[in-house]
Amino acid sequence: MENLLLAIDQGTVDWSRAQFALTAIYHWLFVPLTLGLAVVMGIMETCYYRTRKEFWRTAARFWQRLFGINFAMGVATGIILEFEFGTNWSNYSWFVGDIFGAPLAIEGILAFFMESTFVAVMFFGWNKVSSGFHLASTWLTGLGATISAWWILVANAWMQYPIGCTFNPDTMRNEMTSFLDVALSPFAIDKFTHTVTSSWVLGAAFTVAVSCWYLLRKRHIELAKASIKVGAAVGLVASLLAGSTGHNSAYMVAQSQPMKLAAMEALYEGGTDQSLTAVAWVNPFEQPDYMNQSESPMRIAVPNMLSILATKDAHGYVPGVKDIIRGYKKADGTMEPSLKEKQERGRNAIQALKDYRAGKDKESNLKVLEKDMKYFGYGYIKDAKQVVPFIPINFWSFRIMVGLGCLFIAVFALMLFIVYRKDITRFSWLQKVGIALIPLAYIASECGWLVAEFGRQPWTIQDMLPTWAAVSDLSSGGIAFTFFLFLVLFTAMLTVEVSIMCKQIKKGPEL
Fold it and tell me: Which InterPro entries match (predicted)?
């Protein structure tokens, strides 16, 4: 993998990142709605199976149609996303393909095959199979989509918390040593539970919003009320679960990606008894002068809360940006090396690898690799600014996500109270709030991914491989061309999906 050691044109890096981000953002417009609607339509068909009321059958089939439209679009963007690993990130694919490819292969062979099989039964088997088998097919379709998400998130979690692997200098590849460590890493479990529960929130918000639109138009009143009951209940439970799993995710980030946490909090200078920032003035368009500031201006914070979240100890030590660059003493008493030391040890590892590959004193160079390989990626770092992610995006995206999460809890709880205790058709203002949940849920969902991916920059693999060493040796012009080509294609696909969705919603259920 000699290309890994070559300098890459910055334009190639920037356009490759932009293209991948574009594809991922569009793909994520479809995936969470698929996961969320799977739960809603499963509950509704279960109600039909238990009560045998034709009303629930009609409701289930209505939401299944919307699920199917969205499912098809998600498949198309997902396939393109996986191909980009080979086209735009070939150095990355070579370096860790043995590990990263395994969960993606399982997702394609097992999970996607499962959901694709049962989705056909769900759509076309209403009058051809027994009601019990059809109900099972509906739930298995949702389960297949969820299992598919599991393997994708295992792959993503490994990039942020590489585990269960070892580097082979003879093949120049990282090779898997424990599949279970990769598949069941604590980072993967937390990422999966938080991502899936947040997807349920979005599906619930969509269900509530469509139902509120019907109420405002005074159409399909009974369907709308029943759907609000199901959607708001799913949304409330999912919002509470997302908050809990988000807390666990923050703890994992603090342990394995302290720079991401520092960026999320705009924490420049850490220490013990750290407060959690509620709000502060962080210019959204400019990287702050973190080396010459102790904290952001106009800061309002909750005392000791960050220490509790990050260390589960009210007096725990949380490093800031400056501490991570300069080095600091960890909770277990060991010293975390400074950035300069990591850079030096990373360069030692790179040089030892070159010498080993050239046949020079292999035994001695292997010892250097064993000692310093964990800092291999730092050998490509030229300046401290490169290891600090763009703080404003992380800071504000995190607060938008958390703030909207709290709003969802309040709105779903109010919706449930009103729909069960009052005549919800009289509360037009609440119906308008319900419609607004759709864009707000998407904003919260995308903000979560902005934090996850911007926060780990500059790493494609945490501490192991920076972005500029991971890209393919392509011309920036060619990538820019495909970027705009994909932009047009994905926008057209999104326009088509929204158009079909709106027509189906206007048409309403088939009575």
Answer: Cyt-d_ubiquinol_oxidase_su_1
DSSP secondary structure, 106-158, as one string: HIIIIIHHHHHHHHHHHHH-TTTS-HHHHHHHHHHHHHHHHHHHHHHHHHHHH
Residues 426 and 458 in one domain: no
- The model's pTM is 0.90
Give residue-wise pLDDT tens across range 307-361.
Answer: 998 888 898 899 999 999 999 888 777 888 999 999 999 999 999 999 888 888 8
Residue 9 lies in a domain: no
Residue that is last in its domain, among 408, 431, 452: 452
Closest by CA position to 54, among listed 64, 63, 44: 44
Range of the domain at 228: 21-247+453-507
Domain count, the chain: 2
Same domain as 174, residue 294:
no
Helices (H), 218-331: 221-256, 258-265, 305-311, 321-326
Residues 230 and 278 in one domain: no
13 falls within a domain: no
Report the first-to-last Cα separation within the chain, whole angstroms.
61
Distance CA 84, CA 17 (A): 10
Report the C-alpha gap between 326 and 456 in whole angstroms: 19
Residue with tokens 């996500």: 401
